[in-house]
Design a protein that fits this description.
This protein is mainly alpha-helical. The longest helix has 77 residues. It has one domain.
Length: 106
């Protein structure tokens, strides 16, 4: 969490420094506006690219998670099925043994 706050602080500081530099630069208003427009366009482009990268990585991660969850669910289902079959077999054997013991007692 501290790294996130540090990165946010660095980003805000850099933006503030950039704005202060633009506003105090010895340029005309028209030149300053053009530079701000170019910078804003570049920042927008950079953010769009980064957002696309994040979206792609998130989609890949989601696909991996779904695949792993499916494999785990399949493994659990197989284990449950195997255990159920074992229990059914043991119950059948126990019932047969009980019937045999009842016959012996009679």
């Amino acid at each position: 969490m501290a790294n996130g706050k540090w990165a946010l602080g660095a980003l805000v500081g850099a933006a503030a420094g950039f704005v202060a530099g633009i506003l105090t630069a010895p340029k005309s208003g028209k030149e300053t506006r053009e530079e701000l427009k170019k910078t804003a366009t570049q920042v927008k482009s950079d953010v769009t690219v980064k957002a696309g990268e994040v979206k792609h990585k998130a989609a890949d991660l989601a696909e991996d998670v779904v695949g792993k969850a499916s494999r785990v669910a399949g493994d659990v289902a197989d284990r449950v099925s195997g255990t159920a079959q074992d229990l059914k077999h043991k119950a059948t054997e126990t019932a047969k043994d009980a019937q045999e013991n009842i016959r012996k007692v009679k």
